[in-house]
Amino acid sequence: MVLAKQDEWNKAGLDVVVLHQFGRGKKAPNISPYCLKLETFLRVHKINYIVEEDNALNGPTKQAPWITFNGVNHGDSQGCIELLAEKFNVDPNPGMSDEDKAVYESFRAVLEDRLIPMMALERFYWLKCDDFKEVTPPIFPSMIPSFMHNFIWNHIGKGTKKTSPFGKLTHEELANKSLKVMKSLSQFLGSKRFFFGDQMTLLDIIVHGFTTQVYYMSPDSSKIKQNYETLQNMVDHCKTVKEVVYPDWEALLYKEK
Ligand SMILES: N[C@@H](CCC(=O)N[C@@H](CS)C(=O)NCC(=O)O)C(=O)O
Asked: pLDDT tens for residues 48-69?
């Protein structure tokens, strides 16, 4: 598919990343853990980027985020990070031994294959669209009347439940399962500032993408959030990454017009 603005993105400038993602959230810069992950990576490694919000799902994978870089479109947050790390000669996992890298890969799998799908299932199936009014920007086009919003949300929720490996669990079981995984992250983090010591690595960035969704972008009725909040070092970690990478957090947030 040829996108109307492709020419414009191609001319963004040499080595400037055009980051295609969802619009800003009301309590965090993005409603997607993957969009936040990629934007955080760009910031940590001081890679120039501009944000484009109208085509989040029109990229090569039809998922957000994706990038246009020097005239070429690339999808998948991890793929984009690997490409950019090579291009800019940056190490996303500085100072890590091979053993550390094995731990990182396992935790990444646990986050992306378990925790994020669990959060998505809770968000769309166990919680309601109205629960998210305080955190998300208007997600439905203005011509869709508000009574339809919960209906559409429920429809997405039923689909998510059907395809989710956790679809058979009760809300309580889902939350307890998520706590077990979050606890293992919490134990590994211990009293360290970042997961592998004093330097931020990709694991911190990925965890932050997820915990931001839980802590800032979920309503208090979220059982996953209630469990997460019992892990104080994980809450502190989320705040540390926010403070280091997003001094302009408040300014970025979606504001009611
Ligand atoms: N592996 C992808 C996953 C991206 C992803 O799942 N994005 C979600 C938003 S958090 C999405 O676009 N969902 C819409 C869809 O799948 O139709 C990545 O790392 O970028």
From this structure: 999 999 999 999 999 999 999 9
One domain, residues 150 and 26: no
Q: Give CA–CA dist 239/195, Å, rounded.
A: 14
72 forms beta bridges with 69
Alpha helices (H) along the chain: 6-10, 33-44, 77-87, 98-110, 116-121, 147-163, 171-189, 202-215, 223-228, 232-245, 249-252
76 lines ligand 1 (CB under 6 A): yes
Ligand 1 neighbour 58 (Cβ under 6 A): no
How many angstroms is it from 79 CA to the middle of ligand 1? Answer: 13
Give the total number of structural domains in the chain.
2
Question: What is the C-alpha to C-alpha distance for residues 8 and 81, in angstroms, rounded to an integer?
Answer: 23
What is the CA(65)–ligand 1 centre distance, in A?
Answer: 7
Taking residues 121-127, what's their average pLDDT? 97
Residues 113 and 212 in one domain: yes
- CA-CA distance, 164 to 60, in Å (whole number)? 23
Q: The domain that contains 77 carries what CATH number?
A: 3.40.30.10
Whether ligand 1 lies within 6 angstroms of the CB of 213 is answered as no
Report yes or no on 219 lying in a domain: yes
DSSP 8-state class, residue 124 = I
State the pLDDT at residue 1.
64
pLDDT, one tens digit per residue, over 31-51 is 999 999 999 999 999 999 999
136 and 38 fall within a common domain: no
Same domain, 120 and 186: yes
Q: Residues, the chain, total?
A: 257
Of the pLDDT bands very low, low, confident and very high (cuts 50, 70, 90), residue 136 is confident
**What average pLDDT score do residues 127-148 get?**
85
